[in-house]
Amino acid sequence: MGSCRDAGVLLCALLGGLLLTGSSSGSKLKGPELSLKGSQHIMQAGQTLYLKCRGEAAHSWSLPETVRKESKRLSITKSACGRNDKQFCSTLTLNMAQANHTGFYSCKYLSTPTSKKKKTESTIYIFINDTDRPFLEMHSEIPEIIYMTEGREVVIPCRVTSPNVTVTLKKFPHDTLIPDGKRITWDSRKGFIIANATYREIGLLACETTVNGHLYKTNYLTYRQTNTIIDAQISTPSPVKLLRGRTLTLNCTTTTALNTRVQMTWSYPGETKKRASIRQRIGRRSSDANVFYSVLMIDNVQNRDKGLYTCHVKSGPSFKSVNTSVHVYDKAFITVKHRKQQVLETVAGKRSYRLSMKVKAFPSPEVLWLKDGFPVTEKSARYLVLGYSLIIKDVAAEDAGDYTILLAIKQSNVFKNLTTTLIVNVKPQIYEKAVSSFPDPTLYPLGSRQTLTCTIYGIPQPTVRWFWRPCHHNHSKARYDFCSSNDEPLILDPDSNVGNRIESITQRTAIIEGKNKRPQANTSFTLLPASFSSKYFHFLPW
Fold it and tell me: Which ranges carry the Ig-like domain (predicted)?
């Protein structure tokens, strides 16, 4: 292995290939053979890795996950080799190898050979040394969670990119865990192996090394596993709306029991292209819970980023997920429609009435309501603007009119308006009834010609119907007879021949000041007395 380090990777690969094609070409192979000998090999980051596998049968490669994803840097070529081209060869080429390509590289037969004595797989561990990245995985901001059970083996996986790196295992705040070769051992391919973990290994651990005077540290958090996820939520309400080109930020917050640690991941439309940057941190611990945060951010959001965003929270067998939908708009917009019809009706005296419009807009526009061309807040304190609705408290007749909603997104120069008409109906009121001293009747001379008047106010304009309830004369000297309410009233009209003859019934509309210039109905009829000496009339608005 030492000679390979001195000669360089390319030379070592060529020498290995010559050895394979030379000494073994004339004999049966015991199993697949690799061009690099030994159990491990060291090369420098930025160099090209050449690794050849030769065998008696077709074979495949098993590689580190980071290498399998390198579709541009990685190439594997297959060929026939050996004497008479009866052997199978494949050459793996990895251009510009990086530190995270460190790991096991294996060549394995696709089918099991008939002889059980033959090997089916050859493996080598390759270190890609990078002095700027001594640890294969760095957890500087938030520690990696390691579940442990007391009395069982636990591995602190601070793998390195070179076996020559000296690593120290420390426990917060001041302890150092020293490998003794028995209970605690160091393996550059795995990390620190604790054979029989105890409560002393529970807590925040750190693997530290110093390279070229610079201290590198990667953190791990061990704990006895509990899996209580109390809550998970995305702080931004769903759906999330934003304009194209803006920045999308989603914050997933998870609350857990004290001894629970979680893994938080996201699934989203641009996940395969890694459109988002994701940062995670642990918040302040309360007396009875932990809080974890995962923040997803996408700069310069585009239409392809719209869709469902899901935050997955996992702790052992426990699992929770929470999602939100993201809508991306090309530009600001406003649409407004009547919720029902353009003309609305209500009744005076109602405790409250809501005028509401159907509005779709983004971003949220400024809202102003007008009544008959003037801002409603200047009209009355009874008007309350709530979202896209106008609430009228204690509805009165003067609330009738034309109401206009003005919507404006000033920064985008987008404006819309819509008008609706409100009719306020007023229950009919009879003024004579309000000022009269009924049940005392009015006295008229027998045989005289009389005109009875009824004045009514109401919206819409009411119609009037006159009724007559006869009083049966008892020829007493009393001024008038008593009329029982049990007597059946008669409807009067000009053609009636019952009792007093009705000469005419007329109705006219007058504008009366003091009632906001609303029309009043004034109805009268003229009667010609007949033989009845006492009569009782009343009128009802319809």
Answer: 32-125, 231-327, 428-467
Residue 425 has which token pair?
């109906």
CA distances from 463 to 209, 398, 424, 436, 459 (A): 99, 22, 18, 21, 11
Taken as a whole, the chain contains a residue count of: 542
Count CB-CB contacts under 10 A for residue 64: 18
> Is residue 471 very low, low, confident or very high in pLDDT (cuts 50, 70, 90)?
low
Q: Cα–chain-centroid distance for residue 66?
A: 33
Task: Give the contacts of 152 (CB within 8 A, at least 6 positions apart).
Answer: 196, 197
Beta pairing class for 333-338 and 248-256: unpaired
Averaged over 450-457, what is the pLDDT? 79
- Distance of alpha carbon 309 from alpha carbon 332, whole angstroms: 23
CA distances from 55 to 23, 30, 52, 59 (A): 14, 9, 10, 7
Give the residue with greater pLDDT, 523 vs 199.
199
- Check: CB of residue 513 under 8 Å from CB of residue 499: no
Cα(153)–Cα(183) distance, rounded to whole angstroms? Answer: 9
Contact 354, 391 (CB under 8 A): yes
pLDDT (tens digit per residue) in 110-148 = 877 666 667 888 999 999 999 999 999 999 888 998 988
* pLDDT score recorded for residue 2: 41
CA angle 218, 224, 229 (to 5 degrees): 90
C-alpha dihedral sign at 380, 385, 388, 389: negative
Rounded to whole angstroms, the Cα distance separating 316 from 392 reads 56
CB 200 within 8 A of CB 123: no
How far apart, in whole angstroms, are the C-alpha atoms of residue 122 and residue 24? 16
Cα–Cα nearest to 151, from 216, 99, 79, 199: 199
Instruction: Report the pLDDT averaged over residues 372-395.
Output: 91
Helix, coil or strand: residue 201: helix
Q: Are strands 168-171 and 203-211 parallel, antiparallel or unpaired?
A: antiparallel
Taking the C-alpha atoms of residue 394 and residue 347, their distance in angstroms, rounded to an integer, is 10
pLDDT in tens, 196-233: 888 888 889 999 999 999 999 999 998 776 788 999 99
Phi, psi of 230 (to 5 degrees): -75, -45
> Which pairs with CB-CB distance under 8 Å and at least 24 residues apart come from 72-79?
73/97
Tokens encoding 242: 């934003």
More confident residue, 454 or 485: 454
Q: What whole-number distance in Å separates Cα of residue 408 and Cα of residue 372?
A: 19
CA angle 132, 137, 141 (to 5 degrees): 95
pLDDT at 257 (0 to 100): 84
The DSSP symbol for 464 reads: E
pLDDT in tens, 59-80: 899 999 989 888 788 999 989 8
8-state DSSP, 437: -
Answer for the pair 63, 76: CB distance below 8 angstroms, yes or no: no
Residue 464 buriedness (CB in 10 A; 0-12 / 13-18 / 19+): buried
Bridge partners of 294?
252, 280
DSSP label of 364: P
End-to-end CA distance of the chain: 112
